[in-house]
Amino acid sequence: MKTVALLARWIARLLGIYITIDMVSYIVGEGIPYISTNTIPVQIGYVTLVLALGGIIVGWFRELVGGLILVGSYVLFSIMMGGFLQRPAFPYMIGIGTLYLVAYFLTRKLSGQHQSRKEKRHHP
User: Which of 61, 74, 86, 121 has its CA 20 to 30 A from that of 53?
Assistant: First the structure.
């Protein structure tokens, strides 16, 4: 389980680095889009992308919070763009978010098991 948690954490981090570099290079190459000229759903879609990038960064330090931000931004993005998995243009949000959450919960479960073993040793 420790290995799975470690793999989930590092796969999420490496994918996050890739996506962040990809998004930043796109913005540098194409320029920042004029958000105000788009419809409200598209504007909210842009906001969810910014939230997702924030979730990727936050996930490095706080896996639970970063994972929840990423999953939440995917849900909001999907609602604004017409449905879940009908437009999987940005599945990295749900993928990286899920990996952060898996790493968090596995690490938490392992630390709980470790504490219960310590308690058993101290209480005869």
Answer: 86
